[in-house]
Prior knowledge:
By secondary structure, this protein is of the alpha+beta class.
Amino acid sequence: MKERKDVLTLKKQALAGYFSSLFGGDVEILFVSELGKEREEPQELKAYGYGIPILVEFRVGGQERKVVLETIRPGGFGHDYMSDRAATLLWEYSTFNRLPQHVRAIDVGAFTDEDLPQSVGGAKEFFLLVEYATGREYRHDLEELSKGRELNSLDEERCRALARYLASIHSQKIKAPELYVRRIRELIGHSECVMGLVDSYTSYSQLFDPGELREVERNCNEWRWRIKERAERLCQVHGDFHPWNILFRGEVDFSLLDRSRGEYGEAADDISALSINYLFFSLQAKGNLSGAFERLWSLFFEVYLGETGDQEIFEVIQPFFAWRGLVIASPIWYPHLSESVRRRIFNFIHGVLKEEVFDPHRVNAYFRD
Length: 369
C-alpha cells in the first residue's frame, strides 16, 4: 500500500504557474506562510500539514494580491476519505460567494502525487483558494469582556449588527421539504454534529459517563422527530456562525469565514452558534450568565425577534443548543476548560432538551443540576 504523505510541499514555480493560469499574466510569488504567522521566503515549503490555512502573497500585472489556500486535515468528524474532504471543499466553492459578506472563494483544485496544484484531475488531495480578508475575530471582544473590560456602546452595536444580519439572510426562504428533513437528520447523525461529537468524547471516558452521552444522543433524536416536518422554516443560513468566523473592521463592518454544511437550513442553527458563546465566555468568567454577557445575550435575541417576529424558533432550537453545547464542552477543542464549567454546560444541554419551549430568560436555571 502506498503511504499517504501528511505534509504538503509547495513549490514556488508550481504555485506561480497555477496562479498565472488562474489570474492571467506572469506571477511572482512574494511570500508564503501559515495564516497568522510570520511570512517565510517561498523556497521548498515542506512543513505544511493538511488543514493549515496558507497565506500566499504574489504580484501579477504590477498588482500585489493575497489569497489563502485551504485544505482539510484527514481523519475524524467525517473527514476520513479524500472524497469526504473533496465534497466539503467543492460545496464551499459553490456557495461561499452566494452569501452576503462572506469571504470570496476564488477556485477549487487538487494536488497531484507530486504536490503540483491543478484545477482537477489526478487528484491526491483537494484545496480551496479564497481571498484574504482583513479584520479582527469577534472572539477577541468576548475574551476582553470575560477578563473584565466594561461593556461599551460598540459592543452593543456589533451585537445588533450580527442579529440584523442573521435576520436578513434568514428572510430568504425556499420550498424544499426533503432538504429540511435532511438538515434536521444531519443535525443528529452528521459526523460533525451530535453523533460525531458524542463519538469524539469516547477517548475521555474518565471525564464523561457514556450513559450520559447516550442520553443526550437519544433525547436529540427525539427532537428530530418533533421538528423535522417544519419545512416552512427552511431558509438561507451560514451554518457555523460563531465568533471565530466573524472578522470586524472598524466599528460594525464585518466579513464571514467558513460557511458550513448547507446553503439552506434551520435559522436556529445560526442563532444557537453565536448566542451560546455569550453563555460560554460568561460561564468561564462568572460561573453563570451575568453582567456584560447577559446584556449581549438579551440584546441579541431582542433585536433578532424584533426583526423577524420568529417566536417559533424557541420550539426548535433545543437540539441545536445541545449540539453547540457538545462543541464548547469538548476536551478536544477546549482541553483546559475547568470541570465545573464543563458540568454546567452539560446541565444546560440536559435542561434545554427537556423544555417544550426554550425560555432565554431562564438560562441560569438550566445550568443548575
